[in-house]
Design goal:
With 81 residues, the chain is an all-alpha fold. It is built from four helices and no strands. Helix content is 54%, strand content 0%. It is elongated and about 60 Å long.
Length: 81
């Protein structure tokens, strides 16, 4: 169900948006609806893992108590002595 929405925008932005919509044969309402839809759609944070990364997965085994932050801090201290 469509509902009416009133917006207050800068005049120059409105004019540019109208021109863009006209050039792309779309109504300004549909343009804004599409933009808001793309902004608010749930994103799937699952990123595709490349074959190279998959092949490297599991190559390094770290101890359970390994603290990468602490190790990196030690590295930086040693580097900048």
């Amino acid at each position: 169900m469509d509902k009416k929405l009133t917006l207050s925008l800068d005049k120059s932005i409105i004019e540019r948006a109208k021109s863009y919509a006209k050039e792309n044969n779309i109504s300004l309402s549909k343009l804004i609806e599409s933009y808001l839809s793309s902004l608010t759609k749930p994103s799937s944070k699952k990123e595709e893992i490349s074959p190279l990364v998959k092949s490297l997965s599991g190559v390094i085994n770290l101890d359970q108590d390994f603290d990468e932050q602490n190790d990196y801090t030690d590295y930086l201290i040693e580097k900048y002595k």
